[in-house]
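Deviation from plan, reported transparently: adenosine-5'-diphosphate complex.
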Amino acid sequence: MAASVSSSSHLNKTVRQSYMSLPQGGKCLVTYVWIDGTGEGLRNKTRTLDREPKGIDDIPEWNFDGSSTSQAKDRDSDMYLIPVCMFRDPFTLDPNKLVLCEVLTYDRLPAEKNHRASCNKVMEKVKTHNLWFGMEQEYTLLGLDGRPFSWPSNGYPEPQGPYYCAVGANNAYGRDIVECHYKACLYAGVKIFGTNAEVMPSQWEFQVGTCEGIEIGDHLWVARFLLHRVCEDFGVVASLDPKPMAGNWNGAGCHTNVSTNQMREDNGLDFINRAIVKLSEKHGEHIRVYDPHDGKDNVRRLTGQHETANINSFTHGVASRRSSIRIPRETSVQKKGYFEDRRPAANCDPYSVIAAIVETCLLDPEDKEQSK
Ligand code: ADP
Ligand code: MN
Ligand code: MN
Ligand code: MN
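Because the crystal trials were delayed, the predicted structure below was used instead.
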């Protein structure tokens, strides 16, 4: 098993610790994090500031070589990093920071995969609805050999059944990572809601939320960055592939829970049902933005099996995990609350997902009532 764990994870951590506890001479490390040209990958680089930034406005713009991240050709390859959201750095600790950035091209337009810029405009239009989101990020731990972490190299674990929310060495694989990631999120200031082991062994979930508007995207992307970084320390890989193992194994999604202030008030269920009608009319459009490859990743996952609805049909139901949209039991009983869109793939861009939901449910030009 050791062979599937990275060499870096075996470097001497006691030696590392003696350096990490050196004083910094009053300086502050700021690690800039951004989404690369794949729309899935994250990149980062670090610089020194002379003093601790007190807010996002104290962090200067920066730039990087876009030709090395599939974001630019060799000409005009400088891309701008625009800080948008600041967190504490759980790896090098206070006063150091992590900062999520938007990427702009050399002429200061949003880069191709910068879906935050357009999402932000959509969210501004619907501010009075006080949209709340919670996203459930499923992921799979892989060894460096590409097999799920701790699966036998020549064979398979016992069939699914005992692993969901499991405890015990035979059923829960890699909990160290889950717990370290959780603590890292809390330290950083990421709004992590909870975590659980998933149906497939070595598959886990954390939830981010409840957040208002664009914040869900910012916090989910930083939570993903922290996950990849924690996994690096342990020498394994976190995959967001929506169906890492073909066959009788669950895939990985990013269920998106949504409510407006009207949905949360008495008889809000009427507004939820109205939103579901709207979503039913735009199923294809949504599937195309629920993974980074126009639905081609998600088609492997949304089979109608393994707690999914088939990619070609739109369905909804109370407490139904086989539906595109699930109304939680509690929401149905209280006649108010939220709904869950179960279609987004684990590797979706949350900015694209929430923008599509808001456009469909609240900004339909043919329905002036909704967008008031
Ligand atoms: P599931 O039962 O589908 O596994 P989880 O417990 O994993 O649900 O996640 C529930 C998610 O719902 C959390 O991310 C939480 O932030 C979100 N949530 C709870 N209440 C609301 C609400 N009123 N509006 C939007 N999201 C909500
Ligand atoms: Mn969940
Ligand atoms: Mn889940
Ligand atoms: Mn769910």
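The chain has two domains: 24-113, 123-371. We consider this an acceptable substitute for the interim report.
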